[in-house]
Design brief:
Helix content is about 35%, strand content about 15%. It has a seven-stranded mixed β-sheet, with helices on both faces. A three-stranded antiparallel β-sheet has the order 3-15-14. It has a three-stranded antiparallel β-sheet with strand order 4-5-6, with helices on both faces. α1 crosses α2, α10 crosses α16 and α16 crosses α17. The two termini are about 40 Å apart.
């Protein structure tokens, strides 16, 4: 289930293209009970193949360039936030209140990296911000009660479930009924004509404008990848919702960053949309619809657009309107139970649902662009972390102890100066013959660019 063959077929790819993919196996990479290495390899592999395919189409090549998937590069990229250094300083990936907690009947995991989520969590529990007070409050309540109460307050907490308990949940049934990558057509616009690519490196997305309306990790990984492949990616955030600085740096390579209030400055947004080829969103399903940003509304105003969306739980079912993060999806879907030991829940060796879904989404965009060059039509592409979790859970498991040492990351790290300081960072794992080896520009400061296309 986690093979590149299956994932490529879910993207509608020609199976003959798979002959162009080679793999460098590194034992111990992303070691876990679940097949994380295989999932990561497949997601990066299909993304690179989709990029090579589009590049060959645009450059008029007789054959698709060869793709090379190196487990070491993939493992380093899937843990990019851990390898980032800013002037020698390592980021702190999780805030003190983002962790597992014992409850009266099990475990719950909370997510409070953002100040507004922390405030809602504390309000729901009726305690101050001291971890000891949170621990005491949770110890006397059931995990499901905490999950419901925190959700009702707009916060984030998920009860630990076994794979069997998740399988019995109505959201799991909804997720299982969907394809890994949902793809659809929104209009009947004629086939897209791309300017022919010349010279090196081969940049499949060169000249394309990508409007990046994403946050956190999965969506920004997708747009970071499109930037690597030559797209002009403009990330737009609301001024009142600052992104975590280190997170923005890690996922900001190749992009520009601007601030825009959709509620008060629709004119400038519509100007951006009029020049966009791709719009990528990563907010809770339906959250942007009131601004006219549903796929159908966007395609009506910008015929021929590709709209890509990523969510935690999917845009359907009883949890379709819920917020979520990789760590919480692991807990709900049984992953944390499988990876746990000695009565405690565990976690994957990387935020693999986020990273994997990000590369899947980028692959879906690239395939949609290739299909448009033949058949036209505005397109919609959707992925969900919970659906990526289902793919992972369906793979073969390793028995016994895990934790074999993987390859050292040094060979897949780069360094550069930037507006935010001297950076050490994970190099891109998306590699094909003649393609780019690194991003064209380092990340800048959050919101420091003009609200316009380059």
């Amino acid at each position: 289930m986690t093979s590149i063959n299956y994932v490529w077929s879910e993207l509608g790819g020609d199976p003959a293209r798979l002959a162009h993919v080679s793999t460098v196996v590194r034992e111990g990479a992303l070691s876990a009970r679940l097949p994380v290495r295989e999932l990561a390899r497949a997601c990066v592999g299909v993304c690179a193949l989709a990029g090579a395919e589009l590049g060959a189409r645009r450059a008029g090549l007789a054959r698709v360039p060869g793709v090379r998937v190196d487990d070491g590069a993939v493992a380093t990229a899937f843990t990019s936030e851990r390898h980032l250094l800013v002037d020698g300083r390592a980021p702190v990936p999780f805030a003190p209140l983002s962790r597992f907690w014992r409850t009266a009947d099990g475990w719950v995991r909370t997510h409070a990296n953002y100040p507004h989520h922390r405030e809602r969590l504390l309000r729901a529990l009726g305690v101050p911000g001291d971890p000891a007070a949170v621990e005491s409050a949770l110890a006397g309540r059931s995990a499901r009660d905490v999950e419901d109460a925190v959700y009702a307050a707009g916060g984030l907490a998920v009860a630990l479930r076994t794979p069997e308990e998740w399988a019995a949940h109505p959201q799991a049934a909804e997720v299982a009924a969907r394809p890994l990558v949902e793809r659809g057509r929104l209009d009947g616009t004629r086939a897209r004509t791309f300017p022919q690519l010349v010279g090196a490196p081969l940049l499949p997305a060169a000249g394309l404008h990508v409007l990046d309306l994403t946050r956190v990790l999965a969506g920004p990984v997708a747009t970071r990848t499109l930037a690597l492949l030559g797209a002009d990616v403009l990330r737009v955030d609301a001024p009142r919702l600052p992104e975590l600085a280190d997170q923005h740096i890690d996922t900001g390579f190749g992009k520009r960053s601007a601030l825009l209030d959709l509620a008060s400055d629709r004119r400038r947004f519509e100007e951006l949309l009029a020049g966009a080829d791709v719009v990528v969103t990563g907010y809770r399903p339906g959250a942007l619809d009131r601004f006219g940003l549903s796929p159908e509304a966007l395609a009506e105003r910008r015929p021929g657009l590709v709209v890509a969306q990523v969510s935690a739980w999917g845009a359907y079912g009883p949890w379709g309107d819920r917020r979520g993060f990789d760590s919480l999806v692991q807990v709900a879907t049984g992953i944390a139970a499988v990876e746990g030991s000695d009565g405690r829940p565990g976690a994957l060796p990387a935020q693999a649902l986020d990273h994997g879904s990000g590369y899947l989404l980028a692959a879906g965009v690239l395939r949609a662009l290739t299909e448009q060059s033949y058949d036209g039509g505005a397109r919609v592409v959707r992925v969900a972390l919970a659906r990526s979790a289902a793919l992972l859970m369906g793979g073969a498991r390793s028995e016994g102890e895990v934790g074999e040492a993987g390859p050292r990351a040094e060979g897949w790290l780069g360094e550069t100066d930037s507006a935010v300081g001297r950076l050490r960072y994970a190099l891109p794992p998306v590699v094909f013959e003649g393609g780019p080896g690194d991003w064209a520009r380092p990340p800048g400061r959050w919101g420091s660019d003009a609200v316009e296309w380059a």
